[in-house]
Amino acid sequence: MINKEPRVRFAPSPTGYLHVGGLRTALYNYLFAKHNNGKFILRIEDTDRNRYVEGAVENLIASLKWCGLEYEEGPDVGGAFGPYMQSQRLDLYKKYSEELIKNGLAYYCFCTPERLEALREEQQKQKLPQAKYDKHCLHLSKEEIENNLSKGVSKVIRLNVQSDQKIIIDDIIRGRVEFNSSNVDDQVLIKSDGYPTYHLANVVDDHLMQITHVVRGEEWLSSTPKHILLYEYFGWEKPYFAHLPLLLNPDRSKLSKRQGDVAVEDYRAKGYLKEALVNFVALLGWNAGDDKEFYNMNELIERFSLERVNKSGAVFDLEKLSWLNAEHLRKKTDEEILNLLKVEINHSSSVIHQYSDDYLLKVIAVMKERVSFVKEYLTKSPYFFEAPQEYDKASLEKNWKTETPPQLEKLNEAFSRIASPSKEEFEKALTETAEELNIGKGKLIHPLRLAVSGMSAGPGVFDILVIIGKDETIKRINTSLSKIKL
Ligand code: GLU
User: Fold this and answer.
1) How many Å lie between the centroid of ligand 1 and the Cα of residue 398?
2) Is residue 12 within 6 Å of ligand 1 at its C-beta?
3) What CATH number did the domain enclosing 391 receive?
4) Which of 62, 271, 329, 431 has minimal Cβ neighbours within 10 Å of its Cβ?
5) In the chain, pLDDT over 70 holds for what percent of residues?
6) Boundaries of domain holding 357
7) In 348-458, at which residue ranges do the beta strands (DSSP E only) sit?
8) pLDDT in tens, 65-122
9) If you measure from the C-alpha of residue 241 to the centroid of ligand 1, how many angstroms do you get, rounded to a whole number?
């Protein structure tokens, strides 16, 4: 029974980006640590040299930090149990694998790839349920081993799995899962390139880093018996295990790149808010036992528990993510949105002018309830940033009649007489012009909206006029009169 400060880790292999499934694992570890006043640690499992990707670690760290998942210990922040990159801990894996050899619990294996292949084929022919190493090298004499080692024959180190041992995992999420050691292969611990396999490095590090709870994806459940054997053979206390459910596409197939974005950076680039992504990912397999779906990070920390994580796969539903994005965006203050909008404007090639904070805050005030993404301030109301280049065809057909141009000219005259343009003044000028022309106000309002925005819908037309100002309004009406020919 572990009864100390919880220490959990996120232990990704750097593949080049942070997968949303990885984000979910990292987040649950983080929430668990924060909820229980424990420590959240980042460890990079980079022992597969064939899969080395330049810049992958930096990328991963940037994505974690963007999401607000700060860790107390990790490769860039240090800590008492470092280094936190497995490639910098090779001597430790060597030392511990040799300790197992000394105790008869591991052995050198010099078998050639050809022999292993032949063995596999033979076992397949015999229809054995699973290919297993036949312990050939366990029976080499001391002299043969010494001789091979001194000659530098290519070798690996294998675990000497004892047969017919019951292996029990009391998983926090899945309950009791039982395996038999007779089904566990004499797995390789140290590869021929001297690097450890995932299993050895993972167990050695979880032990040395004093990890109390291993929280990871379900795909690692089948590795856990091997890990449990390693803990037993080393004589180490086991951590608790919690295996998180798979992430599924809406058709319940395993979430994959083919069906959409899987990298956190893709969602970031598409304009999703980190608050929304974190909230969304938190709900992939967890709920607090009620219907609540909108959470900020502090609420998640307060409510999260591993016991409330489901066993069954969690469906990745992008509609919910969009909904959460809109909700989180609306909960932000206008000042917060202003900062995000300025970043968006800086990245946008379509907005070429400079706009004051005051101006942008006015746009935010009228558009806030109409947008789900920050970038929609630009795509849904481009007319706040640039005069319309074209006019909505359907609305033109419906609202722009032969009598419209002289009526708009009259309206423009009335607008030019306004001394201090306010919503009320614009509206008064329009009402009076309509009365003078003896027409309904709609006959002016719809063409006016088209002239100033190019669009058929949006916030109140007088709100638009006040924001773009009197001169710009008059200019846009004139442009529409010269551009729109029926
Ligand atoms: N390196 C493994 C991964 O890439 C870690 C699995 C674990 O947490 O044990 O996900």
Assistant:
1) 61
2) yes
3) 1.10.10.350
4) 431
5) 99
6) 332-373
7) none
8) 999 999 999 999 999 999 999 999 999 999 999 999 999 999 999 999 999 999 999 9
9) 13
Q: 65, 95, 254, 257: which is the annotated catalytic residue?
A: 257
Domain boundary among 194, 227, 244: 244
- Is 378 among the domain residues? no
Domain boundary among 209, 244, 279: 244
Q: Does residue 311 form part of some domain? A: yes
98 and 225 assigned to the same domain: yes
Average pLDDT, the chain: 94
CATH number at residue 209: 3.40.50.620
Tokens of 199: 């299993």
119 CA to centre of ligand 1 in angstroms: 29
Give residue 217 CA to ligand 1 midpoint distance, Å: 8
Cα-to-centroid distance, 215 and ligand 1 (Å): 9
pTM for this entry = 0.90
- Nearest atom in ligand 1 to the alpha carbon of residue 22 is 10
Q: Is 45 in the pocket of ligand 1 (CB under 6 A)?
A: yes
Q: Which atom of ligand 1 is nearest to the CA of 12?
A: 4
Cβ contacts of 392 within 8 Å, gap of 6 or more:
450, 454, 455, 456
Integer-rounded Cα Rg, in Å, for the chain is 32
Residues 438 and 454 grouped into a single domain: yes
Strands 314-315 and 247-248 come out as parallel
Q: Are residues 140 and 225 in the same domain?
A: yes
Same domain, yes or no: 114 and 180: yes
Ligand 1 pocket test target in 87, 198, 203, 243 with most atoms within 8 Å of CB:
198
The best mutation among 42, 216, 230 to test binding of ligand 1, ranked by most ligand atoms within 8 Å of the C-beta, falls on 216
Residue 460 has pLDDT above 80, yes or no: yes
Q: Is 402 exposed, middle or buried (0-12, 13-18, 19+ CB in 10 A)?
A: exposed
Over residues 145-161, the mean pLDDT reads 97
Residues 194, 299, single domain; the answer is: no
Instruction: With respect to residue 381, please indicate whether it lies within any of the assigned structural domains.
Output: no
Number of neighbouring beta carbons within 10 Å of residue 316: 21
Strand 213-217 relative to strand 240-244: parallel, antiparallel, unpaired? Answer: parallel
Q: Judge if 68 and 17 occupy the same domain.
A: yes
Q: How many domains does the chain have?
A: 4
- pLDDT classification of 1: cutoffs 50, 70, 90: very low
> Which residue has its alpha carbon closest to ligand 1 atom 10?
12
Query: In terms of domains, do 201 and 108 share one?
Result: yes
pLDDT attached to residue 397: 95
Q: Are 246 and 217 in contact (CB under 8 A)?
A: yes
The answer to the question of residue 347 being in a domain is: yes
Question: Which residue out of 42, 202, 227, 241 has the highest number of ligand 1 atoms within 8 Å of its CB and is therefore the one to mutate?
Answer: 202
Of 4, 16, 67, 7, whose CA–CA distance to 43 is shortest? Answer: 7
Helical pair 470-483 and 442-453, crossing angle rounded to 10 deg = 90
Q: What is the pLDDT of residue 3?
A: 63
Active site (annotated) includes residue 4: no
**CB 48 near ligand 1, within 6 Å:** no
With a 6 Å cutoff on the Cβ, whether 395 touches ligand 1 is no
